[in-house]
Each structure stands twice: as C-alpha cells, then as structure tokens.
Amino acid sequence: xxxxxxxxxxxxxxxxxxxxxxxxxxxxxxxxxxxxxxxxxxxxxxxxxxxxxxxxxxxxxxxxxxxxxxxxxxxxxxxxxxxxxxxxxxxxxxxxxxxxxxxxxxxxxxxxxxxxxxxxxxxxxxxxxxxxxxxxxxxxxxxxxxxxxxxxxxxxxxxxxxxxxxxxxxxxxxxxxxxxxxxxxxxxxxxxxxxxxxxxxxxxxxxxxxxxxxxxxxxxxxxxxxxxxxxxxxxxxxxxxxxxxxxxxxxxxxxxxxxxxxxxxxxxxxxxxxxxxxxxxxxxxxxxxxxxxxxxxxxxxxxxxxxxxxxxxxxxxxxxxx
Length: 322
Prior knowledge:
With 322 residues, this protein is mainly α. Helix content is 71%, strand content 0%.
C-alpha cells in the first residue's frame, strides 16, 4: 500500500487512493479517509503491509537507535561507510516513528495534514534506502577494486558531499510525492529501483569475486580483513536481494495486472519487502559487530563461556580422570 500509485490509479475517480505513498491528491471534501478504500473485499495485501510496519515499530526503532549510538561512539575511529550507515539508520528510524501516526490517521483522525506528512515519510523511505545502500556498495567497490584511487578519495569530505546530494534527491522526491498530481511520477520509483538494484548487484558481485580470487596460489584461508569485508558485502547482497527484488520483479509489469489487483495486492506486498528493510538493515549491522559497546564485558564472557561449554562437552571419562 506504499510507494507510487499506478497510472490507472491516477485517473481513478476514487477520492482517496489506497496506497499510503501514492502520489495522487486527496479530495478531503468527499468522504473520510479509509485505509481500505477501494479494496474492502481485498484487504489481505494491505494487512500484510500493516503487519510489516508494526514490526518496524517494535524491532526497527530500537535497532536503529542502537546502531546510531554505536556509530556516534565510534566517530573518532570511523570506517569510510559510517556516514552512509548513520544516515540510513536515521532515515529508517524516522520512517518507523511515523507508523503509529499512520494507524491513528487511518482509523481516527482522517486528517489531510497528517496524510501529507505520511506521504513525505513514504517518499523518504522510497528513496533514501536504495540510494544510501548504493553509496555503501560504491564505497566497498572502490576500496576493493581500485585501492589506490580509494586512498585518494578517503577524506570524509567526499562522503559528506555525496550524502548531501542523496539527501537533496530524497527530499525533492518526497516533496513531489507530497504535492502529488505530477504526470507519470509513479514511473520515477520504478526507474530508480531498477537502476539502484542493478548497480548494487553489480558492485557486490564484483567485490565478492575479487575477494574470493585474492587468496593467492596455494592459500586456503582468506586474510582476516578481507574475510571481514567479504562477510559485510555478502550480508549487503542478501539485504538487497530480499528487500528489493520483489518490487524490481513486479512493478515494471504493472500493465499486465488489473488496476485493482495491482493496487490491492501487488503494490502493498512489494513495498512491504522494501519497508521491512528498516528492521533488517540495522539488525544485520549489529550482528556483524564483535561486541556491543553497551553490553558489559562480564555478560559477553558469560555468553562465550556458555557457548564454549556447549560446544565442547566434557565426557564422563574426563570427569572421572580428574
């Protein structure tokens, strides 16, 4: 129910198009806004997307706040991608905080002003995720494939400039979505997601291939730093495929669906996979950390001791011999 409305939706006579990030204007003078408008008998896709948004509130908001806190604490010794990760975590946190307002406006407020704010947040989610992930992929690609040039572009000013550019594009897209009524505006997201998905896949596959070949003759083990980079890029690739492949595979063929099916089923389910990235991305980032800085060392040691005890169980013979 999120994202851009299909072209048939832009010409529909319904006063309140269903998808929350649709670009069509809302005629607030007709009848109260309803989340199920036009899909009263086809609510499964909408409920699926609402469930995903609830997961973002319960798990995504704490995970993104934790990721932001860790990135801020490590600012004295940051990695080159930290600024992109921080912007991505903040945008996902913002998107998650808007979900309760979405529920309240759907069922109680029916406010046009709140609806405009919600459309802006959906525009932020549509754009910031793919673009900042593309920046992270670009950073890893240059670092592995062109290490000499990477050293020349290592100063933070280059990443700050790129982040500002992405934020400007994000806010411009979100403002246009909020205003609505622009001809063929729904095609912008389709083109954007296709280009970003292709770029991210190309970067990550090239990086994984280069790291795999860098073992050298007769070496079975990868260098620890390269192994860490390999795991990071592999996790990025899994996120990209899981979250962005469904809309990439479905949205370009919207003309093959009826307007009702696309609006009530295809669009909500496709954008639900995009929206759940607000939870998956910070959790994957936190899972790659060797230790959470807010977790006491004693807790970490106890967990490690428990895991090692389970892994290396002592046999009765060894106990009797002591």
